[in-house]
C-alpha cells in the first residue's frame, strides 16, 4: 500500500512536469515551432479535427511554418481555423500551401514571455507540492490505522520528499531552458 502511494505520487509529479513542457511549447519564441498549432481545430466535413491530423506541418526556414493540407479542398477551412485561433499570426495562402511567418519578438515581449514562463513553472511546482502533501497525509493515515510503523512513515516521507525535490529540479530545468530560448536574440 505504501509503495502504491509513492508510485502514484511520482506519476502525478511526472505528469505535472510533462504538462509544463506542453504549456511552454505553446509559447512562441520568435522561431518556428509546430507545437504552437497543436490547439488549432479545423472543421472537416462538420467534425472538429486537430490541424496536425489533416495537414503536414513543416519548418522550411527558422521563422516559417508551412502547412500542406492532405485534402487541398480544405485549404480555406485551415486558413480560417488558424485565423480564428489564438496563434496571433496571419496565414499566407498561395492555393496549395499556407505559410505562417513568425515575427521577430521585441525585447519587451521577450521579457513578458519570460515572466509567463516563470509563472507557469511556479504553478507546476505548486501542483507538485500539493501532490507531496496528499501523499504525506495518506502515509500518516496509514500509520494512525496501524498499517505501517513510525519508522516506515519516516522512510516513506523521505522518499516522497526526494521525488518532490527531483520533480522541482526537472521543472526548474524545463523553465530555464525555455527562458534561455526566449531571451536568445
UniProtKB/TrEMBL annotation:
InterPro entries: Ribosome_recyc_fac, Ribosome_recyc_fac_dom, RRF_sf. The keyword Membrane does not apply. The keyword Magnesium does not apply. Residues 140-165 are annotated as: Disordered. SUPFAM superfamilies: Ribosome recycling factor, RRF. It comes from the Bacteria. Residues 20-183 form the Ribosome recycling factor domain. Keywords: Coiled coil, Cytoplasm, Protein biosynthesis. Its main location: cytoplasm. Residues 3-30 form a coiled coil. It is found in: Cytoplasm. NCBIfam families: frr (TIGR00496). Belongs to the RRF family. Responsible for the release of ribosomes from messenger RNA at the termination of protein biosynthesis. May increase the efficiency of translation by recycling ribosomes from one round of translation to another. This is Ribosome-recycling factor. It comes from Enterococcus innesii. The gene is frr.
Amino acid at each position: 500500500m505504501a509503495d502504491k502511494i509513492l508510485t502514484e505520487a511520482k506519476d502525478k509529479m511526472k505528469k505535472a512536469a510533462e504538462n509544463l513542457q506542453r504549456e511552454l511549447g505553446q509559447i512562441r519564441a520568435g522561431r518556428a515551432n509546430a507545437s504552437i498549432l497543436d490547439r488549432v481545430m479545423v472543421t472537416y466535413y462538420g467534425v472538429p479535427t486537430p490541424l496536425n491530423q489533416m495537414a503536414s506541418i513543416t519548418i522550411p526556414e527558422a521563422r516559417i511554418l508551412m502547412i500542406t493540407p492532405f485534402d487541398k479542398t480544405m485549404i480555406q477551412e485551415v486558413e480560417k481555423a488558424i485565423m480564428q485561433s489564438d496563434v496571433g499570426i496571419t496565414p499566407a495562402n498561395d492555393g496549395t500551401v499556407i505559410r505562417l511567418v513568425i515575427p521577430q519578438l521585441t525585447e519587451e515581449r521577450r521579457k513578458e514571455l519570460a515572466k509567463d514562463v516563470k509563472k507557469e513553472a511556479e504553478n507546476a511546482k505548486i501542483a507538485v507540492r500539493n501532490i507531496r502533501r496528499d501523499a504525506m497525509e495518506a502515509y500518516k493515515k496509514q500509520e494512525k490505522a496501524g498499517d505501517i510503523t513510525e519508522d516506515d512513515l519516516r522512510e516513506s516521507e523521505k522518499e516522497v520528499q526526494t521525488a518532490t525535490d527531483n520533480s522541482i529540479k526537472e521543472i526548474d530545468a524545463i523553465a530555464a531552458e525555455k527562458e534561455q530560448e526566449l531571451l536568445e536574440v
